[in-house]
C-alpha cells in the first residue's frame, strides 16, 4: 500500500507541475498581449492628439490669413481718413456740453445756460468755416458728426425747456421725434454703405469713411431758427418777456421749419453719397 501511495503521489505531482506550467504559460501570454495592446492604444491616442493639435494650428493659421486678406480687401474698398481735426473736436465739445446745459436749465440757472448756448452756437459756425477754409480739416466723419451734435444739442435743450414750461411740450416732441428719425436713417445708411463682411467693429470705426452726408438747405435754416428760439426762450425769464407775441410767433415758425426740414430729406436725392476708395480704381488700370 505504501509503494502504491508513493507512486500515485509522484504521478499527481508530475500532473500538477504540468498544469501549473501550462497555466503559467497561458497567463504570461495573455498578460503580454494585454500589455502590448495597452501600449498600442496609448501610442494611437498620442498620435491622435498630435494630429488634432496640428489640425487646430492649421485652422488657426487659416483663420488669421483669412482675416488679413479681408482687411486688405476692406482697405482697398473703404477710404481711411484723419478724424483728429479741429471741427471734429468742436463737434465733440458740443456733444459733451449738452448734458451740462440740460442740468443748468433744470436748475433754473438760465443766465449761465444762455452764455454756454451762445458759445456752442459760435462753435457750430466755427467748425463749418474751418472745414470749408482748410481742406485738410474737412472729413467725412465731420459730415456725420456735425448734424448729430446739432440734433443732440437741440433735442436736449427742447426737452429741458419743456420740463421747466418755457417751451410747449408738443413742439419739443415734434423736434425730438424728427431728430430721432433722422439719426436712425443715418445709422441705416451707414450700415448699407459698409461692404461685407459687416461687423460691429467696422460699423463703429470712425476712420472708415463709407458715406458722406449733406444736410438740405431748409434743414440748415431750421437749425438756425431752432437755436434762435431756444436762445430766446432762455432769455425770456432773464429779461422778463415770457409768453411774448414775438416768442409765440417764433414758436410756430420753428414748428413749420421742423416739419419742412424733415420732409426735405425725403424729397431730396443728394442728402448722402456712398464712398469708394479712388486708389483702387487707379491700381486696377
UniProtKB/TrEMBL annotation:
Pfam families xrefs: CDP-OH_P_transf
TM helices/strands, residue ranges: 112-131, 224-243, 249-268
Domain of life (superkingdom): Eukaryota
GO molecular function annotation: cardiolipin synthase (CMP-forming)
Chemical reaction(s) catalysed: a CDP-1,2-diacyl-sn-glycerol + a 1,2-diacyl-sn-glycero-3-phospho-(1'-sn-glycerol) = a cardiolipin + CMP + H(+)
InterPro entries referenced in this protein's UniProt entry, alphabetically: CDP-alcohol_PTase-I, CDP-OH_P_trans, CDP-OH_PTrfase_TM_dom
GO biological process: cardiolipin biosynthetic process
Single GO cellular component term: mitochondrial inner membrane
Subcellular location: Mitochondrion inner membrane
Matching PANTHER family: CARDIOLIPIN SYNTHASE (CMP-FORMING), CDP-DIACYLGLYCEROL--GLYCEROL-3-PHOSPHATE 3-PHOSPHATIDYLTRANSFERASE-RELATED
Family: Belongs to the CDP-alcohol phosphatidyltransferase class-I family.
Record protein name field: cardiolipin synthase (CMP-forming)
Originating organism: Habropoda laboriosa
Amino acid at each position: 500500500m505504501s509503494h502504491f501511495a508513493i507512486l500515485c503521489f509522484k504521478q499527481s505531482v508530475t500532473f500538477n507541475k504540468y498544469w501549473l506550467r501550462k497555466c503559467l504559460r497561458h497567463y504570461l501570454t495573455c498578460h503580454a498581449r494585454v500589455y502590448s495592446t495597452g501600449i498600442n492604444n496609448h501610442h494611437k491616442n498620442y498620435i491622435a492628439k498630435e494630429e488634432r493639435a496640428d489640425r487646430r494650428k492649421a485652422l488657426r493659421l487659416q483663420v488669421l490669413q483669412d482675416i488679413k486678406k479681408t482687411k486688405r480687401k476692406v482697405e482697398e474698398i473703404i477710404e481711411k481718413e484723419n478724424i483728429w481735426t479741429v471741427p471734429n473736436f468742436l463737434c465733440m465739445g458740443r456733444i459733451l456740453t449738452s448734458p451740462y446745459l440740460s442740468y443748468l436749465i433744470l436748475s433754473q440757472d438760465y443766465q449761465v445756460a444762455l452764455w454756454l448756448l451762445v458759445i456752442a452756437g459760435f462753435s457750430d459756425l466755427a467748425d463749418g468755416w474751418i472745414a470749408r477754409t482748410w481742406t485738410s480739416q474737412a472729413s467725412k466723419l465731420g459730415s456725420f458728426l456735425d448734424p448729430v451734435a446739432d440734433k443732440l444739442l437741440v433735442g436736449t435743450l427742447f426737452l429741458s425747456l419743456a420740463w421747466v414750461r418755457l417751451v410747449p411740450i408738443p413742439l419739443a416732441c415734434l423736434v425730438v421725434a424728427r431728430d430721432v428719425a433722422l439719426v436712425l436713417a443715418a445709422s441705416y445708411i451707414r450700415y448699407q454703405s459698409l461692404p461685407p463682411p459687416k461687423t460691429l467693429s467696422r460699423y463703429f470705426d470712425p476712420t472708415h469713411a463709407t458715406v458722406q452726408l449733406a444736410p438740405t438747405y431748409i434743414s440748415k435754416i431750421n437749425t438756425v431758427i431752432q437755436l434762435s428760439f431756444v436762445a430766446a426762450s432762455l432769455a425770456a425769464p432773464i429779461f422778463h418777456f415770457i409768453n411774448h407775441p414775438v416768442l409765440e410767433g417764433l414758436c410756430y415758425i420753428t414748428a413749420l421749419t421742423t416739419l419742412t426740414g424733415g420732409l426735405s430729406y425725403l424729397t431730396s436725392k443728394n442728402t448722402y453719397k456712398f464712398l469708394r476708395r479712388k486708389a483702387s480704381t487707379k491700381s486696377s488700370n
